[in-house]
Amino acid sequence: MGIKDREMKKKALIETMCFFDLFDIPLTKEEACDFSLYKKLSINELQDFIDHEEFVIETDNHIHFRNRSLNLKVRKDKEIRAQKLIRKAKRIAKWMQMLPFIRTVALCNSLSFYSAEKDSDIDLFIITEKARLFTARLWALIFTQIIGVRRHKKHISGRLCLSFMISKDEMNLESIKNEKDIYLIFWLRLMRPLFGQKTYREFMSKNDWIHEHFDYEIDQQKHLINKSAKLNKIQRILEWPAKGKFGDLLEKVLGYWQKKRANKKRLKLDDPSGVIVNNHMLKFHNIDMRKKFQQLWALRFNQFQQYLTSSSSPSVDDFSSEYQSRSHQSRILYESHSQDSAYKKSEKHSPDSQKV
């Protein structure tokens, strides 16, 4: 590894670790290699950093910054809860294969990080057939309500949150990307499709701008459930009446009703920027934390600039007191890193500002 290449990969490793450190998540060595910004690291390259760079500490096959080893216990507890929710999501998603016009269901937000609080919900990202976004959403709402798993009002813990849906008409999310949107970048990188791999791959190809940040193929397959021919047949039967001109009319009526209801609630928010309602996207995040994450990530990364600009790397002990002072801030940020938790903990929480 040449000097220039090594410095670039060191910078990428610091940036990656800074992002996950915002949420008190130490990475396994394999994750640090796989999730690295720009180019993947090899285990040997990572081990070289562990052996020669003071900022990388290894504990039980996890890497973290100095004075952050207690996060190993935090991660273990949250990962156990996350795995339980993921298993539940997969059981429910199996039956969602029969819902009309739903082409992909994926885990996102905290569960894609394998992290869950005691009262976390299950955030899903859904892609629908073209020109059937509102029809598909109605089916999803009815289904999750009937089986008692839809998140609404105070029913949050372990429930499905259907707060982000798009149609195949417009799958490129670059239009909602903030400048240097580190959260959206990793949100897209870590998304875990449950079914609809073909559409997921099409979605990723439409978002090829992600390769400015990850210069390698992204194809998540770990949590895919088995495709059910019987449920897919039921889906086709249920879709048949809503195809053609009648389906277009139904979609128009449902769209008018859902958009009117959503925009009415959107206008009650102090900051409606996290809510997007149009014919191709339904994004209901009453509190959008992405800009805050960007600021905190940049602040944390700037603490390491001396490693990248100084010919003689300073001791990480120089940063120790600052790490300690940030611990409480990190805990608060971690607990609010999901859009739902941020909303729930808001001092302006009121029935009128519920998720749409």
What is the average of the pLDDT values?
86
Task: Say how many strands there are.
Answer: 9
The unreliable regions are 316-356
Biggest sheet: strand arrangement? 7-4-5-6-9-8
Instruction: Compute the number of helices.
Output: 13
Task: Please bin the fraction of helical residues.
Answer: 40-55%
Strand content range: 5-15%
The backbone outline, from C-alpha atoms, is elongated
Overall structural class, as computed from helix and strand content, comes to alpha+beta
Can you tell me the number of structural domains? 2
Q: Report the order of strands and helices.
A: HEHHEEHEEHEHEHHHEEHHHH
For the termini, the CA-CA separation is: 51 Å
Main sheet properties: 6 strands, mixed
- Rg measurement, Å: 21 Å
Describe the model:
The longest helix has 26 residues, at 71-96. The relative contact order is 0.14. The protein has a 6-stranded mixed β-sheet. A 3-stranded antiparallel β-sheet has the order 1-3-2. It is an alpha+beta fold. Residues 316-356 have low confidence and may be disordered. The chain is built from 13 helices and 9 strands. Helix 5 crosses helix 9 (244-266). It folds into 2 domains: 3-69 and 290-335; 81-284, no CATH class. The N and C termini lie far apart (51 Å).
